[in-house]
Amino acid sequence: MSGSTTPRFGYDVLSVFDVPSNARDFLADVIESSRAPEETEELFQESLLARAADWHYLIECAKSMRRARPEDRNSLQAQDVLADVWYALSGQDPPPGEEPWELTDRLIARTKQLDVDPKIRPPHITEPRGSPQEVALCDMTLILKPQSSISPYFVATSASDEAGQAIALARKRPLRGTVPSVPFAPLTSQEFGLIQEKFAHEPFWLLTVVTFLIRTKGTQAIPTFYKVKERFPTPTHIASEGNTEPLVEMIRHLGLAEHRVSLMKKYARGFLDQPPVAGIYHRVKKYDHRDIDPLSLYQHKGSSALLVDKDSYGQDLLEAWEIGHLTQGKYALDSWRIFCRDELLGRATGWNGEDRDPKLQPEWMRVRPDDKELRAYLRWMWMKEGWEWNPDTGERTVLCEELRNAVNEGRVVYDEKGGLKIHNLAYSANALTLGEEELMAES
């Protein structure tokens, strides 16, 4: 994969925010466009102050760690705040200090244990551990709690322990953009359940519905998309300037309405004036290279065949795709390649390999998406071929019979990273994540 090294203002603003890769280019375009909302300035200020806020929380965390340990004037270890900053950044525990009341604790423990355990250990106060962000969360939790009047040396569970439990519970909630929302379908099913499958033969509408799904839940975006398609059923209707305001009003509740409509109109005009054609490529920056298929060196035009010189495949041509003039977004390009490109090139009559030459590798096998739904879909497609596919590395292993049976019986759930985990029970709606399952079990 190659990309331009030219810096962009939009990328700089978004660098401190948690932005999924399939929406990064889209939001950067919004920020840099002349139609960007007035809130862009506020977003820019938040971006500038984000690093300062992280540093502030780190210092407060270090101070909290310092207060949690008694000062030892005879110790040779550094006891200033910066020393605890170093411990927090490196994820290490500070060296334990000398605990008071050691004799009292020894007598109490010996009385309770009756010489069962002759080794008496002084009480230990658990310190915040983990990354600076997690430690900062611990510190914030401690601030909210009232100070206890009970000696900390007799407290069974310290506040930092409770904060650690809070972090553990928070970890069960997967990060946004990680866990698919579509249930993992049995391998015997004809479709997986993505909206792209329904518009594989209509690439214009496939790109349009992808525009609706960017930074928006499918439960909100898809019903709105169908309403728009019903009212404006052709690219001509979408491209009409007279329909701009009605389109904006129909999708305003999804957010970024004007920019979405601008993309829809770009697609509509592109399919009307310059639709994608096999053999005509347009450069796409920061995206995958095309594989050179020897058969694709011949571009058929009517009854004649034009031989494309193999040496003419330079860097620019390798970075070019048939829809590069319509979109530069990875999510849209990945969706189109998986569901539409084989049909455009005449390799097959459908996204599922209908009437495909067995000697030709389908396009979806070459795609490495970042989107969680597309990753789940390709896992499923590879399983139908008998392979277990790793979306992070692209590596494959032979699908084991246990996992195959679990998928077909509905006994798989998504874990907190979007992977699959076999469960003993079958789920009718198996999009339940492992974290959600554990939370339900605890309630």
Sheet-strand content, in percent, reads 5-15%
Q: Which CATH C-level class of the largest domain is it?
A: Mainly Alpha
CA radius of gyration is 29 Å
Shape: globular
Keywords: Nucleus
InterPro entries: DNA_glycosylase, MeCP2/MBD4
Organism: Fusarium oxysporum f. sp. cubense (strain race 4) (Panama disease fungus)
Protein name: Methyl-CpG-binding domain protein 4
Give your account of this protein's structure:
This protein has 443 residues and is mainly alpha-helical. The protein folds into two domains: 42-69 and 77-171, no CATH class; 195-442, Endonuclease III, domain 1. It is 46% helix and 5% strand. It has helices spanning 9-14, 21-32, 39-67, 81-90, 102-113, 132-144, 159-171, 195-198, 203-213, 218-231, 235-239, 244-251, 257-273, 315-318, 330-339, 341-344, 372-384, 401-408, 434-442; strands at residues 282-283, 298-301, 304-307, 320-321, 387-389, 396-398, 412-414, 420-422. The chain has a two-stranded antiparallel ribbon with strand order 1-4. Helix 3 (39-67) crosses helix 6 (132-144), helix 6 (132-144) crosses helix 7 (159-171) and helix 9 packs antiparallel against helix 13. The longest helix is centred in the first third of the chain and has 29 residues, at 39-67. The model is unreliable at 1-5, 117-157, 294-312 and 428-443 (pLDDT under 50). It is found in: Nucleus. GO terms for molecular function: catalytic activity; DNA binding. Keywords: Nucleus.
